[in-house]
Amino acid sequence: MNQTIVTGGAGFIGSALVRALLADGAPRVSVIDNLNSGKLANLEEVRDRVDFHQADIRDYPAIAPLFQDAGRVFHLAAIPSVPRSITEPVPSHESNIDGTFNVLRAACEGRAGRVVYAASSSAYGDTEVLPKTEAMSPNPLSPYALQKLVGEYYASVFSKCYGLETVSLRFFNVFGPRQDPSSPYSGVLSLFMKHLLARTQPTIFGDGEQSRDFTYVEDVAALCIKAARAPATVSGRVYNAGNGGRFTLNQTWSALCALDGVSIHPIFAGPRAGDVRHSQADTAAAVRDLGHAPQFTFEDGLRRTLEWYRANC
Ligand code: UD2
User: Fold this and answer.
1) pLDDT of 1
2) Which is the closest atom of ligand 1 to the Cα of 269?
3) CB 3.0 to 4.6 Å from 38: which of 33, 221, 230, 294, for a disulfide?
């Protein structure tokens, strides 16, 4: 019952989690990834301690045997983009809902230990009050937000009906090294890093006054591990995985320009469909129940991420 599984473990968050698990004492980690957006290069330094399975979570017969007697499962595989879920709703639905159901079913039938599920802060949509607490009613504004919310509900129902231990963590705009800037659907910070280093203008959708609780990837990885260890009373529950702060896109771009000693004006385009206006996590429940203790301020994270892009892009 010792095996640790990370779905999406070749992605930028998943690979950070794999490194954190190995550093935390896991002898080996099993990664399930279809390599659609993940890359084996993300696992390069730890490849000899990773059992890699190229498989798609939409393919139940392919993944089910891998979950037999697994000790703990971290389910991060997804198609993670609000705009992509609007333009390409079918693959997004199939991966994020059907794929999540398959992972939960495989974990349940394989008698696996706890499943930690990567949910999303997008589930909140726009709320009148900030920061956002888990007690607020969800209000998904995009297919992606709804899909991630359905995954939470499924995780909770598997806990209630089948006794599978699950914990959902609502990731708040995770950023850090290895986030891939090559797609128009890439996370905004990876795109900002690319433009900063190329000395080109980024595009900001809307007025740039929308805000995000940007959360450094290593803090999220650490919280995932804590969620897997927390007492059984957390099973079926949902927690925010955020830093607790909030920065507008205009502030973020200016901070990055200041870090690199340049001044580049962004291009402003129309607002993006499905966008949430403001996002900020209340971290109290995760601190209380899971021992969440973010180590990196936003500025620390920006510096570390910029250093990595300078060295690797
Ligand atoms: C959502 C979730 C996040 C995570 C993510 C996965 C919210 C608040 N957050 O992130 O937790 O699940 O989905 O994809 O729902 N933008 C620009 N220019 C660009 C690209 C983006 O201005 O070139 C804007 C975008 O309109 C948005 C902000 O930057 O206002 C962040 O966009 P994102 O795609 O990085 O992440 P977001 O907030 O959709």
Assistant:
1) 47
2) 22
3) 33
The helix/strand/coil state of 240 is strand
Q: How far apart are CA 94 and CA 210, in angstroms?
A: 30
The token pair that represents 49 in the structure block: 């301690």
CATH among 3.40.50.720, 3.30.2390.10, 3.30.300.30, 3.90.1140.10 for 3-175+216-244+280-294: 3.40.50.720
Question: Does 81 sit in the ligand 1 pocket, CB within 6 Å?
Answer: yes
pTM for the complete prediction? Answer: 0.98
Burial class (CB in 10 A: 0-12, 13-18, 19+), 206: middle
160: exposed, middle or buried (Cβ count in 10 Å: 0-12, 13-18, 19+):
exposed
Rounded to the nearest whole angstrom, what is the distance from the C-alpha of residue 275 to the centroid of ligand 1? 7
Give pLDDT tens digits for 189-236. 999 999 999 999 999 999 999 999 999 999 999 999 999 999 999 999
Q: Catalytic amino acids? A: 144
